[in-house]
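Summary of Year 1 activities. Much of the first year was spent building the evaluation harness for sequence design. The harness presents a backbone, in tokenized form, and records the residue chosen at every position. We chose the following record to illustrate the format because it has been used consistently in internal testing since the harness was completed.
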């Protein structure tokens, strides 16, 4: 549950940077923090897998974190278009935040 809450906060931070600080997402200096965010999302999804009520929650966050790593690689080896960077970080952050919060709060009915 703690890992899901941390992933929720990280997802909200990603959305914040995509919407309110687009220069931080689109610039060439975003490679390191995108890669770091991707690694943290993947690691937290792996840790949250044990306590998730369904395994698809962590699998979805794992894929969103992998997509952040792909965006970081695009920034490192070429120039990623600003539109791809914005939407990639925005949707990754939204997906991570919503799915992680859902996993943290959802408790299946007994029986």
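For this record, the design step produced the sequence shown next.
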């Amino acid at each position: 549950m703690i890992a899901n809450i941390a992933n929720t906060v990280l997802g909200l931070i990603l959305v914040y940077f995509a919407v309110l600080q687009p220069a931080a997402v689109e610039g060439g200096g975003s490679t390191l923090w995108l890669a770091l965010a991707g690694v943290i999302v993947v690691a937290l999804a792996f840790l949250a897998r044990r306590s998730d009520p369904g395994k698809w929650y962590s699998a979805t966050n794992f894929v969103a974190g992998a997509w952040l790593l792909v965006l970081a690689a695009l920034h490192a080896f070429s120039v990623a278009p600003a539109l791809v960077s914005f939407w990639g970080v925005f949707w990754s952050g939204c997906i991570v935040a919503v799915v992680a919060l859902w996993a943290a709060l959802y408790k299946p009915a007994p029986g």
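The mean pLDDT is 90. Quantitative recovery figures across the full test set are reported in Table 2.
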